[in-house]
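Kindly inspect this chain:
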Amino acid sequence: MKKIISLGVAGTATAAALLATGSTAHASSWSGGGCRSDTAGWAYIAAGVYLNPCIYMSSTSGGGQTNWNIGGSTASVGPSGLGIDPCIQLLAVSGTTTWQVADGGCGGWQSASNATFSAKLRGLVPGTYVVQTGFWATIDGHYGYYGAAQSPRLTITS
């Protein structure tokens, strides 16, 4: 279920205003979001790897319309000799309970020293969300999934 706003030639200023205010023409609005480093610093995971998960509103345009989506990204810093495969999931939040509502997949093997990955995760649906990130790697001879760092919360209302 995606909210859509129409944009014509005269709609460019309106689109910029919508981005600035966090509102769409359908009265949906959002608050929060951003990157973990904005509020809590980068998350230490293992073997010198730190993650910075982010959640944000993104848009795609085509045919005179803009589709708003929840997007997520992650970045890492760590030892250049370590290869990681960064992954993103979108979790819904209710109080202290979370559950996965979208899987952004994984970004492919990269150096832990500068790995990045982003994904479009879900259309606008009211609720509270976080992006959770982690990575696949072999650390100390053990191949597995490491992480579960979370972004700040993003709340969508209508």
Remarks:
- Helices lie at 12-21, 36-39.
- The two ends are 13 Å apart (CA to CA).
- Residues 1-27 have pLDDT under 50 and may be disordered.
